[in-house]
Amino acid sequence: MTKRRSAVVAVISAAAIALTGFVSTSATAATGFVGVILPDAASSNRWESADRPFLTAAFKAAGVTAKIQNANGDVAAFQTIADQMLSSGAKVLILVNLDSASAKAVQDKAKKQGVPTIDYDRLTLKGSASYYVSFDNVAVGKLQGQGIKSCLAAAGKKKARIVYLNGSPDDNNATLFKQGYDSVLRPMIKSGAYTLVDDTAVPGWDNVKGGTIFEQQLSKAKGKLDAVVAANEGLGLAAVAVLKKNKLNGKVCVSGQDATVDGLRAVLTGDLSNTVYKAIKQEAQGAADLAVALIKGKMSTMAKGKTNNGVVDVPSVLLVPVAITKANVKVVIADGFQKRAAVCKGIEAICKKNGI
Q1: Whole-angstrom Cα distance, residue 96 to residue 88?
Q2: What is the pLDDT, as a whole number, of residue 144?
Q3: Which of 79, 145, 186, 230 is deepest in the core (most CB within 10 A)?
Q4: Residue 155, Cβ neighbours under 10 Å: how many?
Q5: Number of neighbours of residue 150 by Cβ within 10 angstroms
C-alpha cells in the first residue's frame, strides 16, 4: 500500500503566537503566508507542546510568514480554518488531517486556487498533496511490536495473552502502526505462543474511549492479560490507569509512542514497557523547508522518498523512529526533546539509576 524510503531533512523557521491562535512574521506578508492546521490537543499533547513551537521557530528563522491554528478535533472547524486561510492569501497549506475525506476536500479546493499542500505526519488518502513529511510509520509499529515481544521474553513468558488497542480507524497512520506491530507479533499468534484476546480501534484517538475499550478488553480476558499493544502513549496510559485500578500495572507489558513527559515517566516507573521517539523537530523542519521552497516557487530535492496515497506516489520525507525503554530514555532528554526536570520530577532516584 505504501512505498517508503528514509530521506533527509532540512532546517526551517516560524513565528510568534498571536491572540487569534495565528503565528506570523511580517517578512513575507506581501507575498502571502503558509497556513498550518493542527488536528487537536487531546489525542496527544505533541501538537501544541512540540509541533507548534518547532514550526514557529522554523518559519521565523526562514523569514516566512506562517499562521498556525488547531482544529481541536472538529472536522467542520478544520474546513472552516482552511477556507479562511485560502481566502486571506495562503500560498501553501500544511495539513495534519483528522480524516482523509475532509482533508482531500480541502486539498481539492486549494488545488483549484493554485495553492499547493503538504501532508504533515498523516497521509491524506487519494489526496493531492505536493509533499508528505512524516516518519516511517510501519517502522514505528514494528518497534512497538518488538518492544512488547522483548518485554514478554524478559518476563520469561513463552505463552502470552495480548490485546491490540489500535488508533483511530480514520487515520492512515493508525493503519500503518498496526501493520508494523502485527507483522512482528502475528507469527507468534499463528504459532499459538500468543493469544490475541481482542483487537479494537479507538475512534478519534480518544483516550477516554480508549480507557473504556480497554476495560472491556480486560474483562474479556477475565483479568488475565500479559500485554497491551497500544498505538500511542495516550491510549497506553489510559490502559495503565485501568491496570492500576486492578493492581496489574507493571505486571502487564504496555507499548506507546510519542515520548511525551508522561509517557517517559511511565516507562521509567515500569508502567509502560516501551515507547517510540520521533524527532518532531526534524519533522517540523522538513515540512517548513518544503513550504518555504513552494512559497518561493521552487522545487525541492529533499523529498527523496515516495509514498503512494492510493492515487499517486507523493514525494516524501520519511524520518527514522527510535525505540525507547527505560535503558535509553536519556536519549530523548539529551536530544532536547524533553527536559530532565519534567521527566524526573518526583522520581529522581529512578532517573539516576537509569543514567539520567
Answers
A1: 20
A2: 98
A3: 230
A4: 15
A5: 15
Q: What whole-number distance in Å separates Cα of residue 187 and Cα of residue 320?
A: 24
Query: Is the separation of the CB atoms in 21 and 81 below 8 Å?
Result: no
Q: What is the pLDDT of residue 299?
A: 81
Single-letter amino acid code for the residue at 328? N
Q: What percent of the chain has pLDDT over 70?
A: 91
Q: Which residues, 6 or more positions from 267, have their beta carbon under 8 angstroms from its beta carbon? A: 256, 273, 274, 275, 324, 325, 326, 329
Question: Would you say residue 86 has pLDDT above 90?
Answer: yes
User: What does pLDDT average to over the chain?
Assistant: 91
Beta strands 90-95; 33-38: pairing state:
parallel
Burial class (CB in 10 A: 0-12, 13-18, 19+), 321: buried
Domains of the chain plus CATH, in order, are 16-136+279-319 (3.40.50.2300), 137-277+323-353 (3.40.50.2300)
Cα–Cα distance for residue pair 217/116, rounded to 1 Å:
43
Q: In one letter, which amino acid is 310?
A: G
Rounded Cα–Cα distance for residues 200 and 164 (Å): 6
pLDDT digits (tens, 9 = 90+) for 12-63: 233 323 323 334 333 333 468 999 999 999 888 899 999 999 999 999 999 9
Residue with cell 539516576: 352
pTM of the model: 0.83
- pLDDT band at residue 300 using 50, 70 and 90 as cut-offs: confident
Backbone angles phi, psi at 219, to 5 degrees: -65, -40
Q: Burial letters for 173-186: b for 16+ Cβ neighbours within 10 Å, e otherwise?
A: bbbbbbebbbebbe
241/249 Cα distance (integer angstroms) = 8
Q: Is the pLDDT of residue 153 over 60?
A: yes
Backbone angles phi, psi at 17, to 5 degrees: -80, 125
Q: Are 133 and 300 in contact (CB under 8 A)?
A: no
Tell me the sheet residues that pair with 299: none
- What DSSP element (H or E) covers 229? strand 227-230
Residues, the chain, total?
356
Residue 322, classed as helix, strand or coil, is strand
